[in-house]
């Protein structure tokens, strides 16, 4: 085939990955005792779609595995086999194998371990056959049952141009063992194909080249009578057909498909088939046609039912757009916002009475830009369920491995956050979950002894709080042990004192190389982790908090900005410079009375704000700028709060409130202490965005 | 380009290379032309606190934040005045966009390997490590610097260690 399939690969990869993910989540949800028919169907459809896609694109390894998987799933959903726990396990394993195979196709690299694939296939096949044997006697046997994962198809083509035929044959031979049985004339052909493809896939494949009207397809051991009649009779008149009493051979020489000798042997072997034994064969044929499940019913119609609902779902719901396109859109809107700000700044100086129309338009533009920006930003927003959905599996696997009983609860899966954050948050979260499972939740015996439910609960909760998204990982396990942490810290040479607050003690576990687990397991406990988690989250502009109560449980709270691209900020002036303070850190701004500002030990200054003494930081001294005023009572104090600590920041004045587009300083430069990023102001100049977390920390030290 | 040479297509011939030459004080320097993105004037630089004096700050280059380094200050050459004629060479090095302030851009010079001599070992503020060679052209000596290695070196403080 000349169509370049590679351009569709990416779509297939994404779809297959989605199907695998949905299959996994459905499997985990499945109630083994009373499986829901819809869910079983959905699982089957997912497997089927993967098979279809992989077949079309020639990823035969995946097709093979899914085919076997599908057989078992099919039997289960038809109620021929009862679902068992081992099956779910095997299905999950199969999912992993498929995922690995998909990765290999997607990114190249080492191929999947053949032995694993084979063993999974073996188990699946065994499950399919061992239980289907008794069932088979009652239900019609599927003659399509794979021989080594392959199905035998008989195909007849008529009036197909030679070039097309060659093309098709080449294509087919890539997908299985092809045997040309007879060429009658130039444009008619019958072939036998042993392939791992399903009927639907095969037809899809053929459809690319020739019209389905020109094809007759039959699966399994063929019933020549019927096949030939269905085959538009194009073999009629073929001379030299052997005279035989059987209906099968009477109709004319379509011994084409199977040589008479073969036919005989087949006839003998296939005693149960009964077609050739009974004299009035035609009646049998009619019955065969009537029975929907007739094994070798020729198929001329292409569409397979299972794929239909899947496509219907996808329609209208969403479109697939590459992330680069979205990012480009966001960048462009960012530029538009800057241009709009420039316009607004320029028009701010014109006479409002003379240019009323202009000013109205500019105001209108500002509203539209803001709406546009919000809509564009929302494209990147995704529900956190994308991350949460992986945890049922993690919890199940880890809990089983550790011999613990754990129930996972997820709350607020619909909470949306930036796609970039979603991708980055997955690893730290996984780490926290594994940590909770390993160190947090106790063994069932311990829990019973402590008077708790033997089944532990792990809760993942996501919610919006102001401009932040808050993700909590909490367990009802044993909690952190203050003594053990302090002892460990002493051992590691970290300065500690027994008078430290619990909060300070908990923070110790974020120190590099800190692990209190007595036994290092392969789940966690190697002492790399919590510090990495903290670093990763801080790298995203977020914070980690930890709360624990011995015997009751531990909660790790992650706070992240909603998006990485935009920020509501207050611009402040210090000397000739403009800085942006993220608005969500600002509590208030005030001009203090002279007597409210006091010094501590002649250096540190504090300001009394309604009875509360806050450390005073002067921006000009932090950033070595020549300010317009050094006197707090002549400047403005911006009261900020970070990590629960308040501080007062002395600036020359407030300039205004903007929504600013965050531009990384680190793209072309490096990290600067006290600065989180940069932005471009209305006049085209660069302004620096203050890193409030770091500043408050600087003030405290 | 002041020089025209039949082998201006340097890709065909490894022996010749093109350099953008610029002056710092009385000295003439050359950098690989392929590292140069554009040349522009010096304006609207936002200062960044607590950085060395030779890091002038950052500019907005069509939506991209670009750090500006004044090589005159870094190498104690020339007078570091800033006016509309001060030249900034925007470079593409190590996947980053960085601007350098120089006294003036001279031209693009093509040198063949015979014209490039290895640098002598000597003590200077510019580590000889970063000097690729000394080029000679019509009695001019052009100091050829490996600008990528120089700007990414820890001493420039442009990149996180």
Layout of secondary structure:
The complex is a heterodimer of chains A (701) and B (161).
Chain A: H1 6-29, H2 37-57, H3 60-77, H4 85-107, H5 114-138, E1 151-157, H6 162-174, E2 176-184, E3 188-195, H7 199-207, E4 215-219, H8 224-230, H9 247-250, H10 260-269, H11 281-290, H12 307-314, H13 323-347, H14 356-380, E5 381-383, H15 385-388, H16 391-402, E6 406-411, E7 416-418, H17 419-440, H18 444-449, E8 456-465, E9 468-475, H19 482-491, H20 502-507, H21 530-539, E10 543-549, E11 553-561, E12 566-574, E13 577-582, E14 586-590, E15 597-600, E16 604-609, E17 612-618, H22 619-622, E18 636-642, E19 645-651, E20 653-661, E21 675-680, E22 686-690, H23 692-700
Parallel strand pairs in A: 6-8, 13-22, 17-19
Antiparallel strand pairs in A: 1-3, 1-4, 2-3, 5-7, 8-9, 9-11, 10-11, 12-13, 12-20, 14-18, 15-16, 16-17, 18-19, 21-22
Chain B: E1 16-24, E2 27-32, E3 36-41, E4 55-61, E5 64-70, H1 71-74, E6 87-93, E7 96-102, E8 104-112, E9 116-117, E10 131-137, E11 140-145, H2 147-151
Parallel strand pairs in B: 2-11, 5-7
Antiparallel strand pairs in B: 1-2, 1-8, 3-6, 4-5, 6-7, 9-10, 10-11
């Amino acid at each position: 085939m000349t169509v370049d399939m590679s351009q569709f690969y990416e779509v297939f990869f994404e779809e297959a990955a989605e199907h695998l993910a949905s299959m996994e989540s459905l499997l985990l949800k499945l109630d083994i005792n009373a499986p829901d028919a819809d869910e079983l169907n959905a699982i089957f459809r997912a497997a089927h779609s993967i098979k279809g896609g992989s077949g079309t694109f020639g990823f035969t390894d995946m097709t093979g595995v899914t085919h076997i998987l599908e057989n078992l799933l099919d039997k289960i959903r038809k109620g021929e086999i009862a679902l068992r726990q081992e099956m779910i396990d095997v299905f999950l394993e199969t999912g992993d194998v498929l995922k690995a195979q998909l990765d290999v196709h997607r990114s190249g690299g080492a191929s999947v371990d053949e032995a694993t694939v084979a063993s999974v296939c073996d188990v699946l096949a065994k499950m399919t056959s061992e239980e289907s044997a008794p069932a088979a006697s009652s239900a019609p046997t599927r003659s399509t049952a794979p021989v080594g994962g392959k199905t035998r198809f008989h195909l007849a083509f008529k009036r197909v141009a030679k070039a097309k035929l060659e093309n098709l044959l080449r294509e087919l031979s890539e997908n299985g063992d092809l045997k040309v049985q007879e060429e009658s004339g130039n444009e008619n052909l019958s072939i036998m194909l042993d392939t791992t493809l399903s009927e639907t896939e095969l037809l899809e494949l053929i459809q690319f080249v020739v019209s389905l009207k020109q094809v007759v397809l039959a699966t399994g051991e063929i019933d020549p009578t019927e096949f030939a009649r269905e085959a538009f009779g194009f073999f009629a008149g073929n001379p030299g057909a052997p005279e035989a009493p059987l209906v099968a051979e009477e109709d004319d020489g379509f011994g084409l498909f199977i040589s008479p000798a073969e036919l005989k042997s087949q006839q003998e072997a296939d005693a149960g088939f009964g077609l050739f034994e009974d004299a009035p064969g035609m009646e049998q044929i009619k019955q065969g046609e009537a029975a929907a499940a007739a094994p070798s019913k020729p198929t001329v119609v292409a569409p397979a039912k299972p794929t239909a609902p899947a496509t219907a779902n996808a329609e209208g719901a969403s479109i697939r757009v590459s992330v680069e396109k979205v990012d480009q859109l966001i960048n462009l809107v960012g530029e538009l916002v800057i241009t709009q700000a420039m316009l607004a700044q320029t028009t701010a100086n014109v006479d409002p009475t003379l240019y009323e129309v202009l000013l109205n338009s500019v105001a209108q533009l500002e509203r539209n830009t803001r709406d546009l920006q919000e809509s564009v930003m929302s494209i990147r927003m995704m529900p956190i369920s994308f991350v949460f959905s992986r945890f049922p599996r993690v919890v199940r696997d880890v809990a089983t491995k550790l011999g613990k009983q754990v129930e996972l609860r997820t709350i607020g899966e619909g909470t949306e956050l930036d796609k970039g954050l979603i991708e980055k948050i997955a690893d730290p979260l996984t780490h926290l979950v594994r940590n909770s499972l390993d160190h947090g939740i106790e063994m069932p015996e311990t829990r019973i002894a402590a008077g708790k439910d033997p089944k532990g609960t792990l809760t993942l909760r996501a919610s919006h709080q102001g401009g932040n998204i808050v993700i909590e990982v909490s367990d009802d396990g044993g909690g952190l042990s203050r003594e053990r942490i302090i002892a460990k810290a002493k051992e590691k040479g970290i300065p500690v004192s027994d008078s430290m607050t619990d909060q300070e003690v908990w923070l110790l576990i974020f120190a590099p190389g800190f692990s209190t687990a007595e036994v290092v397991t392969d789940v966690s406990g190697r002492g790399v982790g919590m510090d990495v988690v903290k670093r990763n989250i801080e790298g995203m502009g977020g914070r980690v908090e930890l709360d624990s109560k011995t015997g009751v449980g531990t909660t790790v709270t992650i706070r992240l900005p909603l998006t990485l691209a935009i920020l509501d900020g207050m611009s402040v002036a210090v000397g000739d410079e403009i800085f942006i303070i993220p608005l969500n850190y600002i509590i208030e701004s005030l001009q203090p009375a002279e007597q409210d500002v006091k010094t501590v030990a002649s250096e540190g200054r504090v300001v009394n704000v309604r009875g509360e003494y806050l450390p005073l930081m002067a921006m000009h001294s932090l950033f070595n700028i020549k300010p317009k005023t050094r006197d707090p009572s002549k400047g403005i104090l911006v009261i900020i709060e970070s990590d629960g600590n308040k501080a007062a920041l002395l600036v020359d004045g407030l300039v205004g409130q903007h929504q600013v587009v965050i531009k990384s300083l680190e793209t072309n430069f490096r990290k600067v202490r006290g600065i989180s990023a940069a932005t471009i102001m209305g006049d085209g100049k660069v302004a620096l965005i203050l890193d409030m977390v770091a500043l408050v920390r600087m003030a405290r030290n | 380009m002041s020089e025209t040479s039949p082998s201006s297509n340097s890709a065909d011939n490894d022996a010749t290379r093109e350099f953008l030459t610029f002056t710092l004080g009385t000295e003439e320097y050359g950098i690989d032309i392929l590292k140069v993105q554009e040349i522009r004037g010096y304006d609207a630089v936002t200062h960044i606190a607590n950085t060395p004096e030779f890091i002038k700050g950052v500019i907005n280059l069509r939506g991209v934040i670009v750090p500006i380094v004044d090589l005159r200050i870094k190498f104690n050459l020339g007078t570091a005045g800033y006016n509309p004629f001060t030249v900034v060479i925007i470079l593409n090095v190590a996947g980053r966009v960085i601007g350098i302030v120089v006294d003036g851009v001279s031209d693009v010079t093509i040198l063949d390997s015979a014209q490039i001599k290895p640098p002598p070992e000597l003590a200077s503020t510019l580590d000889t490590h970063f000097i690729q060679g000394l080029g000679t052209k019509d009695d001019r000596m052009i100091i050829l610097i490996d600008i990528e290695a120089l700007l990414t070196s820890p001493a420039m403080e442009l990149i996180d260690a």
